[in-house]
Write a structure and sequence with these properties.
With 267 residues, this protein is of the alpha+beta class. It is elongated. The N and C termini lie far apart (80 Å). Helix 1 packs across helix 2 and helix 2 packs parallel to helix 4. The chain is 25% helix and 30% strand. The longest helix has 18 residues, at 28-45. The protein folds into 2 domains: 2-91, no CATH class; 105-265, Immunoglobulin-like (Sandwich). The strands form 5 sheets. A 5-stranded mixed beta sheet has the order 2-14-13-8-9, with no helix packed on it. Strands 3-6-12 form a 3-stranded antiparallel beta sheet. Strands 1-10 form a two-stranded antiparallel ribbon.
């Protein structure tokens, strides 16, 4: 096989030196060697041929009858071009441009190790003030439990986050209100706040990280003067925990970068 490859390489070099327009006539033996090498390349790189059935030269000689070479002339250009085209086809990767309607999200597992220390507050607690932002206020509005949550990403594309089998999405809604008459740019993501939901003082889960434009955890946007926007926090909880959730059992822990915490009673 090494001898065959060497012969083919010699012919390719001769072809490159003499130019692309000149055809080199080969003897029957030379034609056979070139054709055999090209056929091996085609078989080796053809995705439709299972590699476990690809035999080496010794095995193939023992199991397969080799056909007599054709008397039809073949040039090194044809042999090398066919093999190259096959290998190139194998290497081409087509980019998938199909629009995705489900947003990627990072979830946090539930935990039984619930920390109830820290300040306590009612649902009128202003998260923006806690983060040191005075131009707007962020206050809890209501919650809902759902299989999926539709929204938009930062490019304005409609996307949906779906809960996996055996889980539900706990969606907390908040009102973000601009307290001034001027447009205000709000960057809560840089404040490095963390949020944990607490159910019945026994189960806890951290917020999901999403690419939703209305995600309170990653919010970066402009609120028009004297206007408000609705923003959300998403949590993934198991079906059993979702059944336990009620106004009397739901709390939200907000923790800043200095590890100061406030627990908001959402009843």
């Amino acid at each position: 096989m090494k001898k065959n490859i060497a012969i083919v390489c010699i012919f390719v070099m001769i072809f490159c030196i003499t130019g692309c327009t000149k055809t080199i006539e080969l003897t029957d033996e030379e034609q056979y060697l070139v054709a055999e090498y090209a056929a091996e390349l085609l078989i080796k790189y053809d995705r439709n041929i299972d590699t476990k059935y690809y035999l080496d030269e010794k095995d193939r000689a023992a199991t397969t009858e080799i056909a007599e070479p054709s008397s039809e002339e073949i040039t090194t250009t044809e042999a090398v071009t066919e093999a190259t085209e096959e290998v190139t086809t194998e290497a081409v990767v087509t980019e998938d441009t199909t629009e995705t309607t489900q947003a990627p999200a990072t979830t946090q597992a539930e935990t039984d190790n619930v920390d109830l220390s820290g300040k306590t507050a009612d649902k009128s607690f202003d998260i923006a003030a806690f983060a040191g932002i005075n131009e707007v206020s962020v206050k809890y509005s209501y919650y809902m439990i759902a299989e999926e949550y539709p929204s938009m990403d930062h490019d304005g594309v409609a996307i949906t986050i779906e809960a996996p089998s055996g889980y539900k999405l706990l969606v907390l809604k908040f009102n973000m209100e601009n307290k001034t008459g001027d447009d205000q740019y709000v960057d809560l993501y840089s404040k490095d706040l963390e949020y944990s939901i607490i159910v019945n003082d026994s189960k806890s889960a951290k917020q999901m990280l999403t690419i939703l434009i209305d995600d309170l955890y990653t919010y970066q946007g402009t609120v028009q003067g004297n206007m408000f926007e609705e923003v959300v926090l998403l949590f993934q909880v198991s079906d059993s925990v979702a059944e336990e959730i009620g106004n009397d059992s739901l709390k939200l822990r907000v923790t800043d970068s200095n590890n100061n915490s406030t627990i908001i009673d959402l009843d």
